[in-house]
Amino acid sequence: MAREVATMTRRIGVIGLGNVLMGDDALGPYAVRALESAYALPTNVSVLDLGTPGPELADYLRGFGAIIVVDTLRADGAPGETRTYRRPEIVSAPISQRISPHEPGLREALLTAELIDDGPGEVLLVGVIPSSVAAGTGLSAALREALPRIQGIVVAELERLGVRAEERAEPEAADIWWES
């Protein structure tokens, strides 16, 4: 029972990363806003659209017991293909050269939060291969088609963490302001 109570009260972050003005790079913000409009979440779950926080990402991770991050990733595969990574895989990845506003990335932010002993113990990265990351707004068809799969992964992870996401009978309008 004590473990159950601890699971129910620990803070969980669902975080969307990406630049909404760079096509498919907007996937993270889009996905978390769509999730929030489709599901009612308990108060211990925070849904955050962080854009491209760069060095501040470690600060946003502080105080969470678990995080679920949605972002695009550079990888071989078809646009819309989804990959998931847990904390050990993320922190053991080789250090990459800083070449984007995302840097320092999730790996570095997790290691920084670990140094001050205030980072999430459990991490799931839901990464999706983009079709196009170029100036402009709107997701490609491949990434729009991936959204239900992404939501399913996030909801399943919340359930694994002991949290129930209640599907709304009537979804709220998602605030996708950059497509207006």
Say which CATH homologous superfamily is assigned.
HybD-like
Task: Tally the beta strands.
Answer: 7
State the CATH topology: Rossmann fold
In one word, what is the shape?
A: globular
- Could you say how many structural domains there are in total? 1
The helix/strand class is alpha/beta
**Which architecture per CATH?**
3-Layer(aba) Sandwich
Query: Helical segment tally?
Result: 6
User: Which strand order does the major sheet show?
Assistant: 3-1-4-6-5
Measured between the Cα atoms of the first and last residue, the distance is 47 Å
State the oligomer: single chain
Low-confidence parts: 1-7
Radius of gyration, in Å, reads 16 Å
Helical percent range? Answer: 25-40%
Structure summarized in a few sentences:
The protein has one domain: HybD-like (Rossmann fold), CATH 3.40.50.1450. With about 180 residues, it is of the alpha/beta class.
SSE layout and pairing:
Layout: H1 2-9, E1 12-17, H2 27-38, E2 39-40, E3 45-51, H3 57-61, E4 66-72, E5 82-86, H4 87-91, H5 106-115, E6 122-128, H6 141-160, E7 166-167
Parallel strand pairs: 1-3, 1-4, 4-6
Antiparallel strand pairs: 2-7, 5-6
